[in-house]
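Appendix B. Raw example, untouched.
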Amino acid sequence: MNCKILNSAAEIFEAFNACKNPGEEIDLFECLATHPEAPIVAFVEILQKIKLEPILALTLQAFGKITDADVKLRLKQSDDLLIMLSEQARSGSTDLIRWAAATTIDKLGFDLTVVSQHLSEEPGSIAQKIMQFKIKRFADQNLIESHDYDEFLRFWIYGYWYKLKELTLDYEFWTLKKEWESKKERGWQDSHDSQKIQRLNKFSVCWEVMNALSLRGLNQVNLALKKAEDCGEKASDIDENEVFEGIAQVLSTYQLTEFSSDSDLQVLMETQFHCLESNNKTTRLLAARKILTLENTCLDKIRDEQLQIFHSTEALMEIETYNITRKTTYKKLEILSENIDFLEKQLKRNKVLGELSQMKLLVLDEMSKRKSQFAAAKLSCENFRKSIHVEIDKCLKKIQSISTEIYEKVFDEVQLGQLPDISVDHEHGLILFEDYKNLLAEKLSIASSVHKQVLTFYSQLEKCQNHHETIQNNLTLIKSINYRVYGYLALKDDLIEIQLPSRITYQNYTQLSLLEQYSTYLKNKLNQLRDEVVCRYERIIPSQLSPLDTEIKKAKIKMEAAKNIADKINNFSKILCLYLISLLLLPWTLTMMVPVGLLIGIVKIFFGEAGENLTRILGLIAAPGMLIYLGIEKIIYKLIQQYEKRLEYQRILRYEKLESLKDEERQILNLLSI
């Protein structure tokens, strides 16, 4: 803004009317006040003639912003100026004018003694009371709807709006903005929460003030944020105020689509760049997203001039939006770590650096875990490879000891490749290690399978050979046990001449089926022979036992004849014999009957049943015929006993013969088993 030619009140008023917003109006008067040839006369003329609140308030404040020391000294000594300022401070038409006049008196440094001649109250006290009154108005739930709300806004727009930063220090911008947007249409007159009312009123005023100040407001926020960046850890909370920073970011985003000059673009982009270091993550993300998505030729020029800042923006955007998970590659973690290192050199504000530091700890911790996992997976592969190599080597040595030809065929197939030549940053490192272990397991499976097949084959072959040899030996034993049976078997089957399959060797596992068929064939043939042996002995045993059965029958006949004789003697012959003998010995019997009878009676009287045997003896003495009968009976029973013994002997011979034949049969059957 060119203000060198504005030397009259009319020119200043014309320039004031040409301003697009209060921000430009404030810039106009600051430019005039800080000019080496400040238009003091024009300012005095405005005080005397202009009653319009904004231009009058800005003119009053302009006196306090003059930077030329000589001019400032003359003003301090001007009684006329003090009278005009005191008049406005005491009875100005609005609070803004009274506040502006009072603060200007303080800034110019008028002698308090002289000031007291015009004011009954210190100018600082006047300004402070006005400020406190304005602050209290924030508690009014009808503030926005009040008739003097526009005047209230002008006070903060043209007055000490910096005070609003102090009043909104602890507010979180995006949460408050969302709440404000949801309520601003219908207002918050129905709310009974005084704290909420104050928050919403303050936010609404801050929003209106920043909108009114436009680029000037953004510039002021940029200066505060730049100061915070330069101060680092010592930055003040006021300079880092989230509410004004957030409003600046939003307004800058809106205006970037319709800026009118490169200088405007520069201010708007500086706001976005400063917001990259905001203490609020949402503000950072929105600023980064806006910077990276804008497309404009002027923006391209800035991008070329500040390429490093754009790299920082890209890095910050990625870090802020990235969520580290197990799927995050190690290479990505390295990039994140490098970006954080880069940002730590570029960014200056304390909180964002702290959050970056926390993010870096997470990244480094995850990288450490990945390194440990990679090292463990690699070591596991190495150990697994060693163990697999040992197992395969055992299999190969066993195969080689059995068949060199098979060993040479399988050797190349089971050779172990080297571990994957990869590093921890390989995207699929752990998967490759697992695949390698699976490949090792497959190699071992091949070696083990061939090893098992070879052992099974040659074990089966050896078993078949042993069976064949055993059968031949057993047939020889059968010949020694019972040549006739052997001859019978030889006639029945050609097993005796059977040979092992010639030139059978291991080519593949199917060869085993030949041996299994041969083994099955042997078993079937032997089962047939066993059946033949059983049938043969079913015929042999009866023929071998037939002579003995004949002898047993003869013995039984003789014994039965003797028993019949005994029975006849017992029945008729015994009576006849006794009768004849009794006739011959009758005289003796009669002579001995009386005395013997007396003795028998005496014995029975004295001995009872105990004298039974004695009475029999006395009876025999009285009857000699009975003695002769007993002798004949004894001879016959001896003859019967002889026949019984002979029969038992024949039975024993038959049993022994039968057991002998059965034992033969069992031996032969056992010899025909494998």
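End of appendix B.
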